[in-house]
What we know:
4 copies of one chain form a homotetramer. The first copy, chain A, has 136 residues and is an alpha+beta fold. Chain A has one domain: Hotdog Thioesterase (Thiol Ester Dehydrase, Chain A, Roll). The first copy, chain A, is 21% helix and 35% strand. Chain A has 3 helices and 7 strands; from the N terminus they run βααββββββα. In chain A, the strands form 2 sheets. Chain A has a 5-stranded antiparallel β-sheet, covered by helices on one side. In chain A, strands 2-7 form a two-stranded antiparallel ribbon. In chain A, strand 5 and strand 6 form a beta hairpin. The interface between A and B is medium-sized, with 23 and 23 residues.
Amino acid sequence: MLVTTWKTRIRYAETDQMGYCYYGNYPVFFEMGRVEALRSIGIRYRDLEEQGVMLPVAHLEISYKKPVRYDEEITIETTIPEYPSGTRLPFDYKIFNESGELTTTGRAVLVFALTESGRPCAAPAGVLEALKPHFM
Amino acid sequence: MLVTTWKTRIRYAETDQMGYCYYGNYPVFFEMGRVEALRSIGIRYRDLEEQGVMLPVAHLEISYKKPVRYDEEITIETTIPEYPSGTRLPFDYKIFNESGELTTTGRAVLVFALTESGRPCAAPAGVLEALKPHFM
Amino acid sequence: MLVTTWKTRIRYAETDQMGYCYYGNYPVFFEMGRVEALRSIGIRYRDLEEQGVMLPVAHLEISYKKPVRYDEEITIETTIPEYPSGTRLPFDYKIFNESGELTTTGRAVLVFALTESGRPCAAPAGVLEALKPHFM
Amino acid sequence: MLVTTWKTRIRYAETDQMGYCYYGNYPVFFEMGRVEALRSIGIRYRDLEEQGVMLPVAHLEISYKKPVRYDEEITIETTIPEYPSGTRLPFDYKIFNESGELTTTGRAVLVFALTESGRPCAAPAGVLEALKPHFM
Lengths: 136, 136, 136, 136
């Protein structure tokens, strides 16, 4: 299991007229979480793309438990719960507010795919190697 | 059951460097779908807010089956599958591309809440009345 | 001179906690305006890109005179003020609210550039031909 | 003169299909720059709003010199060039890429306004006091 955290501050652009962070921004927070999770084990997503592999999202789920507000610094906890066996890579998310309260949970399932054809493919060897130490 | 459709065209702003519509834009499409679904039965979301009731999203689920691309006109099909019995109002979504292919499915569960306190509340009488003819 | 109009409705996603349409959304409205201006004379921006020419923005200017709010339908008036003589294509914008009041003015100067190198280039012949009748 | 810097990394959500950071994201970067500039002298924008003063943008100007790309860490240099004398507060911006090259310049002019009426007002005493040491 790989667990990493990343912090970001809610931008004014991300609020809505309810005074909350708009619900459609959470996929962006999740994206930041997984990019930094991969970076923590030495994988830059942009390198993957340059090698001809992309990682589109196949499935997304979000539970909104508490709103977060403008200027709050949130902590995005990203977990890779299992070693990827096929073409899929799931990420689990928890978002905490400044008081440490759990505000949001979610899951995004990504698919390894060839940039040229868009077809699903196996996880690149480099990704598997980087992940292995965390699943033993 | 209430089923409505709404069309929108993918903006350049909504693409990403994969050349796809970024996965984080779909919650915005869903929002457009439900606002127009409510408008079709005479309810303006902004009037609800002025009456002190808001509708934050409690749960969101999206399955991405096919990418959509820049400048494609998508059709957002929004369904209210059941008459609201408590504080929740679910919406089901299907998004079709210009060729009529199903690209995305999803569900958003909204909660009626008092603007002042943020507390869940029953659906306003006006909403129930407007929905009733579609569930008989 | 080519003048076209396009309508769009302010999305909840586009509001901020002041209750206004966030100032950073106007470049997106301008983009919609110019894409539809070009479409009105038979040019699809996506075809340009497929032919190896892109149109990045070099300069942007916006004056915010009046806020627009959630669910308002705005009218984006887009003007190509002059026939392009070099590598640049300017667009002037006026945004009106539902009452016909001028809320925003702006200008975006775009540059024809080769997709491969990113280098500025002359306007494609097809674009010039489509524009010509409007500048005589 | 007050000069501060802030760093942020280009998100995938912020790219477009040209592979660049979409031009409409720069107003958001500018917003981050000025919020952190104010924070550096002890002013939280959210406190201003709670005190009944907001700061909408009246004018914006951006020159795009070089594109920035996905995953690049940009440095936003924010300058308050002059001590505010009336109701306006201008901010100048320079954005640098990871190699230290100037990619973007801009200016945003904000207006102090009363939240209740939306009317322009003088800069709050607290803001003037916090700025004063930087303009002597």
